[in-house]
Amino acid sequence: MQMFGEIVQTGEGEVSVGRKEKSVLQAKLTKLAIQIGYGGARYTVILNTNIIIIIIIIYALKKII
Fold first, then answer.
1. Apex CA 41: angle with CA 35 and CA 46, to 5°?
2. What's the rounded Cα separation, in Å, for the pair 6 and 22?
3. Is 35 inside a domain boundary?
4. Which of 19, 22, 44, 62: CA 20 to 30 A from 30?
């Protein structure tokens, strides 16, 4: 396993600066966390949009009545 910033010798004789490798579980959890974040952001936008529409409707009804 590589450590962050460690210089690694690859099979082709090249030298590269590696990053810390993630296990399969870490990769899946990271992907899931990102999806949850996107879902939360979408939910927030939809909820706020609905609230704004309701406020506009209430304001319009008060002006009419």
1. 125
2. 15
3. yes
4. 44
Question: For residue 28, what are the domain limits?
Answer: 23-64
**Look-up: residue for tokens 């990769």?**
27
Is residue 11 a part of any domain in this protein? no
Please indicate, yes or no, if residue 37 is contained in any of the structural domains.
yes
Per-residue pLDDT of the chain (65 residues; tens, 9 = 90+): 545 555 555 566 555 555 678 899 999 999 999 999 999 999 999 999 999 999 999 999 999 88
- CA dist., res. 38 & res. 32, Å (int): 10
